[in-house]
Amino acid sequence: MIGRRSISLEPREVPLGGVRAMNVLRTLPNKDLPTVGAWCFLDRFGPGPVKMRVEPHPHIGLQTVTWPLVGDVRHRDSLDSDVTLTRGQLNLMTAGHGISHSEYSLGEEEIPLDALQLWVVLPESARDGAGGFEQHTSLPTVALPASSGPDATATVVLGEFAGTRSPATVHTPIVGAEIALPAGSRVALPLDQAWEHAIVLVEGDVAVDDLSLVRNEMLYLGDSRAQVSVSSTEGALIFVLGGEPFEEDLVMWWNFAGRTHDEIAQARADWETPDAATARFGHVVSHGAERIPAPELPNVRLKPRRRHI
């Protein structure tokens, strides 16, 4: 068991630049905390006007979770998916052995855009499987009784929360839930004591067990908690991440989640070799030759990430 924690993790600004032409706030992976459950990556892009053009790029060994807050995103992938995602809907793409996709904002002008982009690392049993894509336009919600003020509402994005399960495919015990706290509300969030959890403040004001968070801050809670108290004065939107601690080695680099340096190097080589890229990652529907080239590998061998908290 990890035990109870109350550790604040602040995001860092990461310039994506180039064809992506925008900055993001990245909370996971953190140098001291590579994963929360199987969640291994959390970016927030926005809010702000942006013309997003994320050209075709590859993934292995993970699932991408796109959760829009403001604006619409067009997703295209090498499985011939071509869909538009809007607020309250979920795009879930499973990379498996290899997949490629692109993400565009709609239109040719800058638009207001704000979203969470998360990754879930796949366990050994699923990480080399076939790729997949699913869009869920309706997700289950559950009312959370308040001890004071109005009740809160949870949308179960991935996994299970408060006895309610998302229809999205998962491969490890996990939870991803958005919770809307009305002004003046205090609510006890039910947690699985065997899982570790974290809470991210997306908008508004929130106190977690009376510890106030600032916007985009993540509070890592550890495990061994049956519940945690959250309250808001003016109203808040928070996101709960959690799950069974991920015990397998994890080597992450660029868009790849693997177990060894050699595995990552092979995926990079495949993406940079046209025939191998087509065979392993496919071709993104409605695109031509445009793509994001892989960066150079570092001059040291990649090693598994370890937690230090």
UniProtKB/TrEMBL annotation:
<comment type="similarity">
    <text>Belongs to the pirin family.</text>
</comment>
<feature type="domain" description="Pirin C-terminal">
    <location>
        <begin position="177"/>
        <end position="273"/>
    </location>
</feature>
<dbReference type="GO" id="GO:0008127">
    <property type="term" value="F:quercetin 2,3-dioxygenase activity"/>
</dbReference>
<dbReference type="InterPro" id="IPR012093">
    <property type="entry name" value="Pirin"/>
</dbReference>
<keyword id="KW-0560">Oxidoreductase</keyword>
<dbReference type="InterPro" id="IPR011051">
    <property type="entry name" value="RmlC_Cupin_sf"/>
</dbReference>
<dbReference type="InterPro" id="IPR003829">
    <property type="entry name" value="Pirin_N_dom"/>
</dbReference>
<dbReference type="InterPro" id="IPR008778">
    <property type="entry name" value="Pirin_C_dom"/>
</dbReference>
<protein>
    <submittedName>
        <fullName>Redox-sensitive bicupin YhaK (Pirin superfamily)</fullName>
        <ecNumber>1.13.11.24</ecNumber>
    </submittedName>
</protein>
<dbReference type="InterPro" id="IPR014710">
    <property type="entry name" value="RmlC-like_jellyroll"/>
</dbReference>
<dbReference type="Pfam" id="PF05726">
    <property type="entry name" value="Pirin_C"/>
</dbReference>
<feature type="domain" description="Pirin N-terminal">
    <location>
        <begin position="26"/>
        <end position="120"/>
    </location>
</feature>
<dbReference type="Pfam" id="PF02678">
    <property type="entry name" value="Pirin"/>
</dbReference>
